[in-house]
Amino acid sequence: xxxxxxxxxxxxxxxxxxxxxxxxxxxxxxxxxxxxxxxxxxxxxxxxxxxxxxxxxxxxxxxxxxxxxxxxxxxxxxxxxxxxxxxxxxxxxxxxxxxxxxxxxxxxxxxxxxxxxxxxxxxxxxxxxxxxxxxxxxxxxxxxxxxxxxxxxxxxxxxxxxxxxxxxxxxxxxxxxxxxxxxxxxxxxxxxxxxxx
Length: 197
Description:
Elements: H1 5-9, E1 15-19, E2 24-31, H2 37-48, E3 51-56, H3 76-84, E4 87-93, E5 102-106, H4 110-123, E6 127-129, E7 155-160, H5 167-190
Parallel strand pairs: 2-3, 2-4, 4-7, 5-6
Antiparallel strand pairs: 1-3, 5-7
Helix pairs in contact: 2-5, 4-5
């Protein structure tokens, strides 16, 4: 069955949260389904003053709507969020056994992806992949309809293995991503709200 975003956010127990703050936006589209992703997004947004959009499912629901079907025309809050921000960072999880402690840094803003990848390498012992050509198909975050790529300056999709979402590693990822976003927010303020691409 091909579920649509409006069906998901209208389901009992599903929380769709948006906080409009800075020009950088942090996202978690599959909270509750991909453990640790919504928590990481909330922590990074709170620590940096970034804007936030998350969808969190209750324990008894397991709808995986692919990111490319998160159509802003189906959610006023998602549309409002995307119109407010200039660039996005989206947290996701995957479960491939051959990639146990790995984080894939995809998305179309390759400058920001490189910066986040370098920060994660500095702060953690995770295997970090920043070359989209080396990422499995479907985990690159490069599709133009993916919400992470819809802001003016595109964005970065962080695909984290189950091992990368363990408490120890996830804490390091949060610190790394927050450090880069804080720098982006400062630079944006210095340039009158404009972000580099």
